Amino acid sequence: MLGFLKEPVVVTAKINVSLVALTVMGLINRLWGLCYPRAVVFDEVYYGQFVSLYMKRIFFVDDSGPPFGHMLLALGGYLGGFDGNFLWNRIGAEYSMNVPVWSLRLLPALAGAFCVPLAYQILVELHFSHCAALGAALLILLENSLITQSRFMLLESILIFFILLAVLSYLKFYNLQKHSAFSGSWWFWLLLTGVACSCAVGVKYMGLFTYMLLLATAGLHFWHMIGDQNLSNVSLLCHFLARGLALIIIPMGLYLSFFYVHLALLYRSGPHDQIMTSAFQASLEGGLARITQGQPLEVAYGSQITLRNVLGKPMQCWLHSHTNTYPIRYENGRGSSHQQQVTCYPFKDVNNWWIVKDPGMQQLVVSNPPRPVRHGHIVQLVHGITTRYLNTHDVAAPLSPHSQEVSCYIDYNISMPAQNLWRVEIVNRESDTDVWKTILSEVRFVHVNTSAVLKLSGASLPEWGYRQLEVVGEKLSKGYHQSMVWNVEEHRYGKSQEQKEREVELHSPTQMDISKNLSFMAKFTELQWKILTLKNEDTEHKYSSSALDWITMDTNIAYWLHPTSGAQIHLLGNVATWASANAAALVYLCLSLWYLLRRRRKIYDIPEDAWQLWVSAGGICGGGWAVNYLPFFLMEKTLFLYHYLPAVTFQILLIPVVLQHLSDHLCRSVLLKSMFSALTVAWFSSVYFVYCTFSPVTYGQPALSLPQLKALRWKDTWNILIRKQ
Amino acid sequence: LRRPGLPGVPEATAGDKAELSEARAGRRRRAAAPSPAPTGCGAAIVPRPSRPAGRARSQRRVPWRRRRRSSPARPRSAAGTAGRDCIPRRAPRPPRRGPGAPPRPAAGRPAALALVTLLSFASRFHRLREPPHVCWDETHFGKMGSYYINRTFFFDVHPPLGKMLIGLAGYLSGYDGTFPFQKPGDRYEQHNYVGMRGFCAFLGSCLVPFAYLTVLELSKSLPAALLTAFILIFDTGCITLSQYILLDPILMFFLMGAVLSMVKCNSCADRPFSASWWFWLSLTGVSLAGAMGVKFVGLFVVLLVGLNTIYDLWDLLGNLSLSLVMFGKHLLARVLCLIVLPLALYTAVFAVHFAVLNRSGPGDGFFSSAFQSQLIGNNLHNVSIPEHLAYGSVVTMKNLRMAGGYLHSHWHLYPEGIGARQQQVTAYLHKDLNNLWIIKKHDSDTDLSDPSGPVEFVRHGDIIRLEHKETSRNLHSHQHEAPLTRKHFQVTGYGINGTGDSNDFWRIEVAGRRTGELIKVLRSQVRLTHVATGCILGSSGKTLPKWGWEQVEVTCTPYLKETPNSLWNFEDHINPKLPNISLDVLKPSFAEILLESHMVMIRGNSGLKPKDNEVTSKPWHWPINYQGLRFSGVNETDYRVYLLGNPVIWWLNLVTIGLYLLITVATAVALKRGVQLTSELKELSRVVLHAGGQITLGWLLHYLPFFMMGRVLYFHHYFPAMLFSSMLTGITWDALLKFCAGLLSPSTTARRVYGGGFLALVLLILYSFYLFHPLSYGMIGPLASNPSSPMAGLRWMDSWEF
């Protein structure tokens, strides 16, 4: 029992002191004075509101990315005991006492700090020397832009952390591959690769680029394994399945789980409800659910309904009519039918109520038992307040002359008959006899006479239409478009006086609990779709820049300015590092091309293993830079300098790779080698010098005087804020 | 997990036997199947370079020689065994069909080619005159053809070659350029339109033989080529698109021409610098220039040829028997034929374009003042206007950036929330009364139009006020954000009847001049500095949203960089007090004109954005034939033509792409795993990987980029990709059928399976064409939704509108 005492208890620990030292330095460097400034800095104003909403459990949609990053920030707030009560309205606003600034900013700062040892490890795993690895870590440590970005409540540093972690774990996994496949640590690193990838994607969609790069690398490596005749088909299959599981299945599952947690946390209705469909809204506590609870599920003849357009753009709105008529002549001289206007109105209103009527019967009440309306049935829609029929005819619509005008029919006793029959087509039906359901069914109204489809054109009417949105009959209904689809939101069965007594028995309506009807996957698909398609007005921001400006760092972003002292924080890179990173990328490219051409002619300048090293390091570092940078040239969204940070991180890792290669293979004599080392040291001190010079605008303190600030403006295009006297 | 021994060894004998029978079967089958390149077992042993000469000679032989070679097939039946013996075990095996395989009857291929060409022409020229009215985009391209005949200058987003050819065809066929082509549906009446249609149909018909030859060259298989040809002949979409006055048949003609010559050139690779090699290489270059000259989409085929050339050169570089000098020659030849030649031709096309169009027309305003001065009939041609700017002059100001507009204002205000709610100031590309501004002094408001008053010239460094002539508001700026470029200040029209405030003052400066100098119309490059804020008037080049009528944003930039964006010149100049003098206007050089017209085209292209809520065609719709385009007619009584691919063919293409992917992966993995393949299969895998790969690359290059385009897209953009997809279908099914047939042991069954499969595919295509041919050849009568229509029941997808 006490057998273990027979042997002496020996703990042998091998500690890489430089790794520890780097970590400590990183922590000091990123965490120093974290609470300063105690004011909202730049995009904190944006992310902060989401943290507050998490604290209050209120639902929101953020089109900038998936929710994992937001949740991590919120975790900081949760641990710091934040109650969510802060108005995030202005950059530079002082934080009130209830905001735990330190813990809110802690997670990004930690992530930023751990990037330093990660960089070291990556170079080691790429089989570069300890010295090169140290250099890489120090460059990351002294990179002003990374420091600035990680010291506030922003997501980039977390993203970069996960990206680097994914790369590192893949490299570890790959290096274990040869000797100990399917061992514990092999599995650990493989799984960690997948987990880190999905975390990176979960923080920002930019993470996808690195994920793709790693998938491609894994694919390439596996392709080499296929050619290995020593491996049997079975073991090859096992390898393939393991990779598929860890790099595709698990990331997808994790990604889903982020959304699951997100939706589980946010169960209250809030300001972004209206973007979502009625069904989704009804699943949230408060909001629409309060209204729709206890509504009858099946729409029947005689039902009173409000109809919401499914598109929700430019804003959510309901089919509406009012006593005003279309003007006889429009400004451009075209004529109208002069009948009652039908519009789409973005607010709840008594004029949004419509009654579903059976064309064959006169009554406007629901019979007992209710006769439900099914797909393909023909109905008339009666406007509740004016009791006029929804109508369309071959008259050009006010703003969209190619479509038909939709009106509520007034009988002027002229040769223009009423055409008020509409066929109900349930778009998301399961069978052709489906019943029209409140909230759940998405319905198209097809005009029987002209087969035009009721559609929201998206244009807003002039003064005579009270700037409400235009509704038209679309003749050329090209396929499915959300602007032609409507759903019932509010619904009650119409009842007349004599029915009032029987109301109680009549109204044992099909109670429904929408939230149960809507599965997680349905919610997820909808939310995901909204995140991907929701577009903010892409107007230019004052500090936005184009991707071409980033390489040369022709642009900066002012993050914060002290209201009195003139102390300020800027997102500005370390000029020396950026320039040398560009130089390194260029040298790498030229050398690689040179080697490739020479190798093709069977001239081998460097030994084979050095070449392999060179290629793999370039593939990871140069490839990482390319995949994280080049796609921005194809994007149309507003771009900022901080979008370049993941790319520049990879580019920085390329510097020591190139330096070591130059010293190992191109400096052939000892003298050259020592000269090269001296140059490297000199260059490194210049990096340090630049770091020190710009640290006041990186950390925001100390405040600089006017001439000092002017001296910092090394490029004309930089926007250093200089207060006018 | 290691397997004992080498996998190949134990099965070696069995494998050989199988190979033997395979070889025999294959040889017999090959009487029906096409023959590969005649490579023999000798070729495997003798080093490569010696082969070409012999082969070239044998190919140059007259047909009777081939016939003689093919007849004694039976006596040579031992060749299979002999072939096996003479090949060393590890040497790369040549395709086994070499010596013993009788090539196809020599008459077969020309006959097939003739048949295919005939069918193609027949299908394209059938009912070419119908409908005798303007269809769809004929309204644009017909009109532009007329412009060439009338020599009036116009502007279009595509390069000019296609429209020039249309114009030429019209001219040669006797069309006089008088038909206005106003809108689709206009009847041609007595105008001769058939010449232009016939020209397009002719080029469209050439696609089929081109595709046929390409596939034949790539796969060396007649059935594959025939299948491709049938697919293209009987595709309703290709027929429809070739029958009208459109750019697409012209573009696709050059595109397929480039692909064909590239493939031909590749197969000449074993005798470089021979006459035919030079011919095909330079023909590739010519076709590239043609494709680029018709539409910018031609860039994709340039990319395809470029990638192929790089691959080719890479191969040559790795060939150590080739000296570097020889490699240099190869490189130079390609640079000459594929870069220099096309560029020269492309430039020549533009030179002709500008030489032909020398009269002022609807496209003037898109170009700079200097350019306009060259057009006969433009108000700047042989211009005579007052030379120096004076106070009281009425002027228009043109931005100097490429395709910059005139400074413009109109009675509309900036909408709420966008800067101050004052009158909009924009840059507008067209000539318009609202482009006129009056130059006034900043401090006095005396009526300068009084003819008796003294003339006072504007000088460099003066502070002036610019009053908009139509609305009498002053050009104004202030420290509000500009609507799109947030870093700049907003520019507005302000004040009533010329009375404003100090924010209306601008300092006028000529770039690179000293104080006090006079300002010359057209020639001075002028900068307007806002006095109060120090910013400079400029045009950002961004298009305003709907409220700004999609005109170009004008801002006041606080960054004092010297760019064409912030420089202006005065173009029109009206001042009755000054004498008009004729100016020798600066003539732009041809290079400048070329650059400028490209900038204008690119901007025009990116300006074709879909409007809000407009249902547009999406790239993923295309391969599934989701929705077509109405070429003509809507109602029951109309002659209706609907551009839609033959659904059977398109879905076959779609399935084939998936199938091809599967086959490729399987083949590549098998090869990588070192599975021993028979020579038959090796040849098949070469066709699948190499030929198929080339075609797939073409398909990808012509399809994927559309996913990233912001402009409005249409269904017909897919047709170049569809050509590649059809070729892939031919190659893949041929390979698949051969593979399936190869699995069956008795050769008769194998041949039957192969022939049966092929026949089934062809019949399927023919039957579907029979069903859907009214789409291209016109439908009259009830719509397809009506059960009495001949098209009833054929509307397989709800999104088809016929």
Automatic annotation (TrEMBL), chain A:
Enumerate the spans annotated as MIR domain: 296-359, 370-427, 431-491
Tell me the GO BP annotations in alphabetical order: extracellular matrix organization
Keywords of the record, alphabetical order, are: Endoplasmic reticulum, Glycosyltransferase, Membrane, Repeat, Transferase, Transmembrane, Transmembrane helix
Q: InterPro entries of this UniProt entry? A: ArnT-like_N, MIR_dom_sf, MIR_motif, PMT-like, PMT_4TMC
By its UniProt entry, which Gene3D superfamilies does this protein fall under?
2.80.10.50
Q: Which PANTHER family match?
A: DOLICHYL-PHOSPHATE-MANNOSE--PROTEIN MANNOSYLTRANSFERASE, PROTEIN O-MANNOSYL-TRANSFERASE 1
For membrane topology, the record states:
Multi-pass membrane protein
Its UniProt entry gives the catalysed reaction(s) as: a di-trans,poly-cis-dolichyl beta-D-mannosyl phosphate + L-seryl-[protein] = 3-O-(alpha-D-mannosyl)-L-seryl-[protein] + a di-trans,poly-cis-dolichyl phosphate + H(+); a di-trans,poly-cis-dolichyl beta-D-mannosyl phosphate + L-threonyl-[protein] = 3-O-(alpha-D-mannosyl)-L-threonyl-[protein] + a di-trans,poly-cis-dolichyl phosphate + H(+)
Compartments (UniProt record) = Endoplasmic reticulum membrane
Family of the protein in this entry = Belongs to the glycosyltransferase 39 family.
Q: Which domain of life is it from?
A: Eukaryota
> Which residue ranges run through the membrane?
68-88, 100-120, 154-174, 186-203, 208-226, 246-267, 575-597, 609-627, 639-659, 671-691
Tagged with keyword Transferase = yes
Pathway note: Protein modification; protein glycosylation
- What EC number(s) does its UniProt record assign? 2.4.1.109
Under what name is this protein listed? Answer: Protein O-mannosyl-transferase 1
Q: Which GO terms describe its cellular component?
A: acrosomal vesicle; dolichyl-phosphate-mannose-protein mannosyltransferase complex; sarcoplasmic reticulum
- The broad enzyme category this protein falls into is transferase
Provide any one GO MF term from the record.
dolichyl-phosphate-mannose-protein mannosyltransferase activity
Chief location of this protein within or outside the cell: endoplasmic reticulum
UniProt cross-references to SUPFAM superfamilies, sorted A to Z? MIR domain
How far does the signal peptide extend, from start to end residue? none
TrEMBL record, chain B:
Report the transmembrane regions from the record.
194-215, 222-244, 278-311, 331-357, 648-671, 687-706, 713-733, 753-772
MIR domain sequence ranges = 386-442, 455-511, 516-573
Which Gene Ontology BP terms does the record give? basement membrane organization; reactive gliosis
Keyword set, alphabetical order: Endoplasmic reticulum, Glycosyltransferase, Membrane, Repeat, Transferase, Transmembrane, Transmembrane helix
User: Compositional bias of type Basic residues: which residue ranges?
Assistant: 57-71
Locate the compositionally biased regions of type Basic and acidic residues: 14-25
| Segments of skewed composition (Low complexity) | 47-56
Might you give the EC number(s) for this enzyme? 2.4.1.109
Q: Where in the cell is it found?
A: Endoplasmic reticulum membrane
Report the domain of life of the source organism: Eukaryota
One GO molecular-function entry: dolichyl-phosphate-mannose-protein mannosyltransferase activity
One GO cellular-component annotation of the UniProt record comes to: nucleolus
Q: In which pathway does it act?
A: Protein modification; protein glycosylation
Q: Which Pfam families match?
A: MIR, PMT, PMT_4TMC
Q: Which CDD domains does the protein's record reference? A: beta-trefoil_MIR_POMT2 (cd23282)
Keyword Transmembrane in the entry? The reply is: yes
Task: Show the catalytic activity.
Answer: a di-trans,poly-cis-dolichyl beta-D-mannosyl phosphate + L-threonyl-[protein] = 3-O-(alpha-D-mannosyl)-L-threonyl-[protein] + a di-trans,poly-cis-dolichyl phosphate + H(+); a di-trans,poly-cis-dolichyl beta-D-mannosyl phosphate + L-seryl-[protein] = 3-O-(alpha-D-mannosyl)-L-seryl-[protein] + a di-trans,poly-cis-dolichyl phosphate + H(+)
How does the record classify its membrane topology?
Answer: Multi-pass membrane protein
As for family, the record states: Belongs to the glycosyltransferase 39 family.
Q: Provide the protein name.
A: Protein O-mannosyl-transferase 2
Task: Give the organism, scientific name.
Answer: Taeniopygia guttata
